[in-house]
Amino acid sequence: MIKGKLFVISAPSGAGKTTLLRRVMADITGLTFSISHTTRSPRPGERDGTDYHFFNREQFMAMIEDKMFLEYAEVHDNLYGTSVDAVGLQLQQGLDVILDIDVQGAEILRKIGQPEAIFIFIAPPDLGELESRLRRRGTESEETIQLRLKNAQTEMRAAAGYDYLIINDVLETAEKVLSGIILAERAKAHRLPSGKAMGELFI
């Protein structure tokens, strides 16, 4: 079976990444989501095992000691990590995996070079629009909003190190661009838009 591709996607908080990914994943077959582990509290509507695996800090630190993470990082005073075993199994099953991580985690993956990945950065049109989106969410305190805006400036500078940059101004346009990147990478690997190998076309 052909091995899947890993798509590493980063964005500042409030850039619309979650909405964009949900739309793309609903339209493209053979694409799955790597569910990260985190120590942050669930937001309204989030479910354990679906949006994130929620752990306390003590549990998370024990997983670090056991080398269970492909990468991990601390963002906005919370820890986030990606399971080595979970991602490896999905790729071996021939699935293309969406890995939603911050710029710190992406840099770690770049340095280790394994697994080979495609890096995509999703950016807001500007910081003013980003602030408006954060305030419309109504889920963060003023202190948290200011922290996210400060971090966004650093994260935006990291975009130059990614293979692709998508400006999420008009959602429908950003969706077409992200879908196009995924399908183009499949074509580059001589795979069908469905994700299957070209050789399976005649089976």
Your description of this structure?
It is built from 7 helices and 9 strands, in the order E-H-E-E-E-H-E-E-H-E-H-E-H-H-E-H. It has helices spanning 17-27, 57-65, 84-92, 103-112, 127-137, 142-157, 171-188; strands at residues 6-10, 31-33, 37-38, 53-54, 69-75, 78-83, 96-100, 117-123, 164-167. The protein has a 5-stranded parallel sheet with strand order 2-7-1-8-9, sandwiched between helices. It has a 4-stranded mixed sheet with strand order 4-3-6-5. A hairpin with a 2-residue loop joins strand 5 (69-75) and strand 6 (78-83). The model has no long low-confidence stretch (mean pLDDT 89).
Contiguous uncertain segments of 5+ residues: none
Count of alpha and pi helical runs: 7
N-to-C order of helices and strands:
EHEEEHEEHEHEHHEH
Strand order of the largest sheet: 2-7-1-8-9
Could you describe the largest sheet, including whether it forms a barrel? 5 strands, parallel
Structural class: alpha/beta
Average predicted confidence as pLDDT? 89
Measure the end-to-end span. Answer: 13 Å
Helix content: 40-55%
According to DSSP, the number of beta strands is: 9
Radius of gyration: 17 Å
What is the beta-strand fraction? 15-25%
Shape: globular
Structural descriptors:
globular; alpha/beta; 203 residues; 7 helices
The gist of it:
With 203 residues, this protein is α/β, with parallel strands linked by helices. It has helices at 17-27, 57-65, 84-92, 103-112, 127-137, 142-157, 171-188; strands at residues 6-10, 31-33, 37-38, 53-54, 69-75, 78-83, 96-100, 117-123, 164-167. The longest helix has 18 residues, at 171-188.
